[in-house]
Amino acid sequence: MNMKEYPKVIRITPNKISKILQVLLGLEDVPLISIKKVKGYPNNAVSVLFKHDTVRYLYFESQTTIQLYRQIQLNEGKAYEMIYKEGKQ
């Protein structure tokens, strides 16, 4: 019998995000603003917006990558700069 392989479903939980942030930023008890599936990306990619003090961060996870962005203020408005990227096996 041939078993078909399906993509692993990424399940982001506040507890998992908290651990990730502690490792990446050394932050604890970071309030979550939103957890969303990312349109246009396959394989259950998610983005997580959270805030520490006045800084907003965006965590992105897909089947192949983990990325972390920090919101920065520009003259034209706001943007996110990448501060961490890791490929997944």
Describe the structure using short key phrases.
single chain; 89 residues; mainly beta; 5-stranded antiparallel β-sheet; 1 helix; 13% helix; 46% strand; globular
Order of helices and strands: HEEEEE
Task: Look at the helices and sheets and give the structural class.
Answer: mainly beta
Q: In whole angstroms, how far apart are the ends?
A: 27 Å
Number of domains: 1
Main sheet specs? 5 strands, antiparallel
Tally of DSSP β-strands: 5
SSE order and pairing:
Layout: H1 14-25, E1 32-37, E2 46-52, E3 55-61, E4 65-74, E5 77-87
Antiparallel strand pairs: 1-2, 2-3, 3-4, 4-5
Structure, described:
This protein has one domain (14-87). Helices cover 13% and strands 46% of the residues. It has 1 helix and 5 strands; from the N terminus they run H-E-E-E-E-E. It has one helix spanning 14-25; strands at 32-37, 46-52, 55-61, 65-74, 77-87. A 5-stranded antiparallel sheet has the order 1-2-3-4-5, covered by helices on one side. The longest helix has 12 residues, at 14-25. The relative contact order is 0.18.
Task: Please give a quick description of this structure.
This protein is mainly beta and 89 residues long. It has one helix spanning 14-25; strands spanning 32-37, 46-52, 55-61, 65-74, 77-87.
